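step=encode ok
step=design start
structure_in=
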């Protein structure tokens, strides 16, 4: 590749160079819009350029209510934010934990952006062997919400498995509730509340895997009978899968001799076992070793009958935890939720409900406008069919909670673009020229903001 000439590097050259760096790099401008986003960051956050470039951070990522993006903090405070661990969620509802060093970018005495150098600790956070610290942190079969036949079958199979001494394999998509089911089986077996240990296999190295197993052996040697929950088996390297196969085979041999297990293994797969074996992600011998009892955890899209019950459950749960008084949701919300496929399953529904409830202020009935912006973009706005565009439509409304600044700016942008289109008789080229942007940029914003175009 020829070196660029001049005082400034071409942004594509810089972008390709950053892709070789083995730490996540994320650069935003003064508006919090993504300018550069390297390959490592895309892997860490399970995102693509099209998902994030030229979008504001808060349009793409969800942060806990009492936290803020370290990139936005660096922009606001105009000083480095160093060695900060941050947990947040991407647009797909996936939880991410990073350790960040974030710096403002200066030019001619002014802050013109911010750069974040991030290290992925999602796996490290979840690799720790954790024991529950109290009964409130462990689920039982009484905690399951839903009455669909698939859930009833799953609960029946879980209770049956609890009466055995066998290892158990749980299969089902990410976010469907496999760890909750494992906790239910642990409780049903009458095991202690401090003895549910978990290992997340994502991004495990050989050394770390052995380190965790040794740590668990030390702990269980000092405690009563326990559960060893090993999650995302398909994420292990094949060499580690073979090592795990030997470990589980030894466990089975000991059980046959003593009829008294030292611990109960419960393992999970987030992919169909046959597909995982055919694609080379899962060792066939490991599958046969651990699949003595297999229980399927259904996806939410296959039990949409349970959505109203789940919505009620989350409202009651969040009301109790956050001291709010939400009474329910509109009928349109239930219809909308029932039309959606929920790729993130129950965990995604939980995140959407939590974010929506925090946006409600003093209102008590959750409606479309309270849903997170990234989630609303997946649907047609029920209000979009109303042709009238009143300039007060996005201003302060009587009896309504104040919007966040980002939400206000998004509405203002949508309103201004719509008015500009009307002024130019819905000619996209003329409108883009008047707004000082490219036609492609305007097309993108029309789609992003669900702006109505004349048929």
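sequence_out=
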């Amino acid at each position: 590749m020829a070196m660029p000439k001049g005082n400034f590097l071409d942004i594509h050259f810089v972008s390709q160079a950053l892709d070789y760096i083995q730490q996540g790099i994320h650069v935003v401008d003064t508006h919090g819009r993504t300018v550069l986003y390297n390959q490592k960051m895309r892997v860490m956050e399970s995102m693509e350029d099209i998902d994030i470039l030229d979008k504001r951070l808060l349009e793409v990522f969800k942060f806990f209510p009492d936290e803020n993006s370290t990139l936005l903090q660096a922009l606001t405070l105009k000083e480095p934010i160093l060695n900060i661990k941050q947990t947040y969620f991407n647009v797909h509802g996936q939880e991410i934990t990073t350790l960040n060093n974030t710096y403002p970018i200066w030019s001619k005495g002014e802050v013109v952006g911010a750069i974040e150098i991030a290290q992925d600790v999602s796996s490290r956070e979840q690799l720790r062997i954790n024991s529950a610290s109290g009964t409130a942190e462990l689920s039982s079969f009484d905690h399951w919400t839903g009455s669909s036949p698939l859930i009833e079958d799953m609960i029946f199979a879980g209770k049956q498995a609890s009466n055995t001494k066998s290892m158990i394999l749980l299969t089902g998509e990410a976010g469907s509730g496999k760890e909750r089911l494992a906790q239910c089986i642990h409780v049903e077996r009458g095991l202690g509340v401090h003895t549910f240990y978990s290992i997340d296999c994502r991004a495990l190295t050989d050394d770390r895997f052995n380190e965790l197993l040794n740590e668990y052996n030390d702990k269980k040697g000092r405690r009563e009978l326990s559960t060893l929950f090993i999650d995302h088996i398909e994420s292990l390297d094949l060499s580690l899968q073979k090592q795990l196969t030997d470990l589980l085979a030894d466990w089975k041999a000991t059980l046959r001799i003593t009829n008294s297990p030292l611990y109960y293994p419960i393992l999970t797969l987030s992919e169909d076992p046959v597909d995982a074996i055919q694609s080379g992600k899962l060792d066939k011998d490991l599958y046969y070793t651990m699949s003595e009892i297999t229980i399927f955890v259904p996806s939410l899209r296959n039990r949409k009958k349970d959505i109203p019950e789940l919505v009620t459950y989350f409202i009651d749960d969040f009301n109790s935890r956050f001291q709010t008084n939400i009474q329910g949701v509109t009928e349109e919300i239930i219809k909308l939720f029932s039309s959606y496929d929920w790729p993130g399953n129950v965990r995604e529904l939980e995140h959407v409900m939590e974010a929506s409830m925090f946006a409600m202020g003093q209102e008590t009935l959750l409606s479309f406008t309270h849903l997170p912006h990234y989630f609303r973009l997946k649907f047609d706005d029920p209000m979009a069919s109303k042709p009238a565009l009143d300039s007060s439509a996005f201003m302060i409304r009587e009896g309504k909670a104040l919007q966040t600044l980002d939400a206000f700016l998004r509405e203002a942008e949508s309103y201004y673009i719509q008015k500009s289109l009307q002024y130019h008789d819905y000619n996209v080229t003329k409108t883009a020229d008047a707004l000082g942007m490219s036609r492609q940029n305007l097309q993108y914003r029309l789609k992003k903001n669900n702006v109505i175009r004349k048929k």
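step=design ok
step=annotate ok -> The CA atoms of residues 255 and 261 lie 5 Å apart.
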